[in-house]
Structures are given as structure tokens and as C-alpha cells.
């Protein structure tokens, strides 16, 4: 498998964690989101993924190479193709719970702090760096505090977002905390999430997936 | 089952379509996102879903009521619990494709045009109505054009986003087109999506789920 990604991209980071948790080997192909006017916008990358977003996972199927996009769709694919070291629980309500935690980050937090969105704020809308950072912190912390409340209230929470084994939810949480720290969010109001984050970072699967440990890290 | 939603909420609309496509009966509970300072922010609704977002689906499980959140997690739950009239194909790569189409809307288009985001733009950031509408149209059409390109290029596209039976992708597409029309987006550049949208709206499952046909419609 080949993973087209960027060291700092949250969505790429999620897939790297999932691949590591499942013990699946893959080759990394760096797509630089800033250099060369954004390599994700190049014709060659758009041929792979017309959405012009990382990550894209290329897997072989009956001798053909198939490109998959969208981090959560890629992780669900890995889960279905390689069921060992499952990232979703068995029980249907618990699966829905874990997916909801993951989507609360993937849909309600991360899209608002995407590089292209921040660029639109400072470029097209002429917002200051300070307004951009306030925007980032507002949406990031609105989402993370809701998640904190949900996890604090749920008896299924454990060492990780769900129980004592990492799931899809942790694959999404860790990159979001990395991002939040980069944008200097005050994370003291989400102690449960920070506890889980630390438990994750103690595992090699998460550590090896971290932006600083990628070949394209700057 | 009880679906807490709002007639105009895209995410609620997605779940209504899925329930109808599967022929599942449900009771609607209206949560007005504007009146009373936003009923989704009330203590009673937050007890159900700390994220303070619609929809929430309440289902019975061993005599207890369980609340599920996040539209895509709810639809995956319905798919697993009620496999008849499947909303995902069988083949793993095709499942990943359909999920990626759905997520391209749910993660890359819809979050940027959420009511709370638009309010932040005009409120906190002091943007004009025109800037707000330009923002909406920019993100909506960036996402929809990428989707158009993907669907136009893919041999699996048919009467619907994938093949000739509606899937999870169509559950997400139709509410986004409704939203785009509301914000007066020029949809002439996405003819494949508009063709699929029409094919969906010809079906009772989609029509009955439309905002105008809800009890709380204004």
C-alpha cells in the first residue's frame, strides 16, 4: 500500500495511526501542501484524488491500483479488509458511539481549521493573524469540550476513548490534540482527553505516526 | 425510534432519507435551532447529546433508551442493525468509494456552512451578508465541483452516485443540494450531481424526507 500524505495533515496522521495499530506495512509518498503552490493541487495528484486533499491510499486489487480518499473511509476499508486488531467494537451501539466520537472531530472540529480555510480567512476575508487564531481556538475548543463532556459522562470510556484498547476515535483525537497544541489552545478544560492522549502517545503505533517522525517533517 | 431533528438541518435530512429508504418507522421530535435561543443548546437536549447538535436518534436496547449522535454514525448503525435495503455496496473498494463520496460532503462541504459557523462570520467577525454568502458559495461549490469530477470520471456512477440504487452518498448529496439552492449557488457546473439529485427526488423516500414535508417546516 502507498499512502499519499503530508506530515502535518491531521487526516493523514489518522490513517498512519490506523495502519500502525493494525501492523500494516506501507510506503509513504509526501505531498507538500505548501510548497510548489500546493502539490495537492497538481494535475498528477488530482488524477489520483479530484478532491485535491490528502490523504489518498493506493491499494492493489486484482492487479490494478485503486486510489481511496477520505481518511475515515480509508480506515473503515482497512478495518473491513484487515479485521485483526479491530478499531471498532463488536456491539452495534458501541460501534455507533465510537464512530460518533470520531465524526465529532472529523466533521465538527477539523474542517474549520483546515489549511485552506485558514488561508481564506486571512486572504479573501482579510482577517488578522489574531482573528484567525481566535477562530481556530473557538471551533477547536467548542468541539473538544463537547467531546470531553461526552467521554466524562460515558461509562464506556476507559484508558482510551472507548475502553482500554485504541479505536477509530483515538485515531482522530490524537491528531486533533496535536493541532490544538500547535495553535496554542488552552487544553486545561479537557483533562479526560489529555489523559487519553497521553495513553495513546505512550504506544509506538501513535508515536511512529506523529508528524515529527515522518520523512517529510520540517 | 425517535429522531430529534430540525426540518432544515442537512444532517437530520440525511437520516430521514436513510430511515425512509430502509422503510423504518420513526417519530420526529422537532428541535428548533433558532427559536428560544436555539433549543439544541437547552439542558434537556444537551443531556441527550452534549455536542448540542441535531440529529440525535433514540433507539431502544434491552429496555433502555440509547441516544446516538452524528448523522453518518446513525446511518451506519441503521445499516448494521437493519441490513435490508442496503445503503452500502458489498465489495470493500466500492464501500470505501461510497463512504468517501458521503464524507466529501459531510466533512469538506457541510461543516463550513453550518448555521453556527455562518453566525460566527457575521457576528464575531463582523462579516457582511454578502461576504457570508460568498463564503458559503465558495466552499459549497469547491466541494461539489470536486465531487462532480469524481462522479463524472468513475465508471461506478449510475442513476445515483453509485450504481442504480440509492446509497449513503445520495443521503448526503440531496440535503447539500437543497442547501446550495437555498444559498443561491449556481449549480450549472455540476450537471451530474443535478441529474442524480433529480433521480433521487423522484423517489418517495427522498421527497418525504424533504424539509418542506416536515411537521416543523415554516
From TrEMBL, chains A, B:
One of its GO terms (molecular function) is glutathione transferase activity. One of its GO terms (cellular component) is cytoplasm. Its EC number is 5.2.1.2. InterPro entries: Glutathione-S-Trfase_C-like (IPR010987), Glutathione-S-Trfase_C_sf (IPR036282), Glutathione_S-Trfase (IPR040079), Glutathione_S-Trfase_N (IPR004045), GST_Zeta (IPR005955), GST_Zeta_C (IPR034330), GST_Zeta_N (IPR034333), Thioredoxin-like_sf (IPR036249). GO terms for biological process: glutathione metabolic process; L-phenylalanine catabolic process. It is an enzyme of class 5 (isomerase). Keywords: Isomerase. Residues 1-86 form the GST N-terminal domain. Residues 91-218 form the GST C-terminal domain. Belongs to the GST superfamily. Zeta family. This is Maleylacetoacetate isomerase. It comes from Undibacterium parvum.
